[in-house]
Specification:
Elements: H1 9-18, H2 37-52, E1 61-65, E2 71-76, H3 77-80, H4 83-97, E3 122-130, E4 141-147, H5 149-153, E5 166-168, H6 171-178, E6 194-209, E7 212-225, E8 236-248, E9 253-266, E10 269-277, H7 280-286
Antiparallel strand pairs: 1-2, 3-4, 3-10, 5-6, 6-7, 7-8, 8-9, 9-10
Length: about 290
Amino acid sequence: MRAGPLSNMNVINALNRYFVPVYVSHQDPGPAGPVTAAQAAEVHRIYVDFIRKKLGSGTVHVYILKPDGSSFRGMDIGPAVQPGKLEAFLTGIAQELGTTAGPPVVKPHPQSVPGPHGPNDLVFHLVARGGSHNSWGHFPSENWIVLSRQEWMSLLPRGAVAVGASWEVDPAVAHKLLTRFYPQTEEVNNKDRNRIDLASLRMTVVKSANGVTRARIEGNLRMKHSFYPGKDQENDVQATLTGFMDFEPATHRIQRLRLVTQKATYMNDEFSAALTSVSSETLSALAQ
């Protein structure tokens, strides 16, 4: 849906002008889901009512409610993935109900935001994208990684360092930074289903000036990651990585860190991924 009708401007305009769009994963109302008990009960009520009224249902389905919350129309995934049919469906409902066009009820905002973090934590944004031409490859995946002060301090060298000095990143921290380096796969929760065979990051100082030192990062990753949750598959991720870290030895402060794949494959298909440290200014803007 994201790669098809929900990227079509006619469909987007119809949703924004005449509807209050809401999307929910079937996992959200589950026992481990993020929604409240009242929200889960409402999702279940709508789902059951659509079945009772024979309006259709499914894990991917369009559910249309009237302003009073009662079930009204449904559209199965088959026609819904066709932008022209979905647009006609939506505009037809607006005409039938006599809905007046208006601005979006909710101001557009980023759909992916960092999780809980404190002022002394270091937050990273990870973007990965597969090379396939099907819907899985049309959009990049996003993940957020948070390192505590104790964790990110382990990225720094112990004591003074000169150009050419090298050190290995703590394996536990390297695992945490690299465990999401894979392209889009079926995700229904935050459970880590990886088996890491190798996750190494090596820092080498390449220059130092004006109180700032730059270290080149070289990395290697080999791990198993199943495409679908609950499947006993061992699909290979293999990647070589490069990047840099700028830090202030005197204050033990990391200014920025960037890490990208030089060459990466998953299930024998190439993919790309990039990890970026996020500034406090950017985090403040995302929180607004």
